[in-house]
Amino acid sequence: MKNILLHVCCAPDGTVPLIELVSERNNVIGFFYGNNIHPYEEFLKRKEAALRLAELMNVKFIINNYEPELWINSTREYASEPERGKRCLLCFKIQLESSAEAALKLNCQFLSTTLTISPHKDPGLINSIGKEVASRYGLIWVEKIWRKNSGFQRSVHLSREIGLYRQTYCGCIYSFRGDELSDE
Question: I need a surface site. Which of 7, 20, 71, 153 has the fewest CB within 10 A?
Answer without folding.
Answer: 153
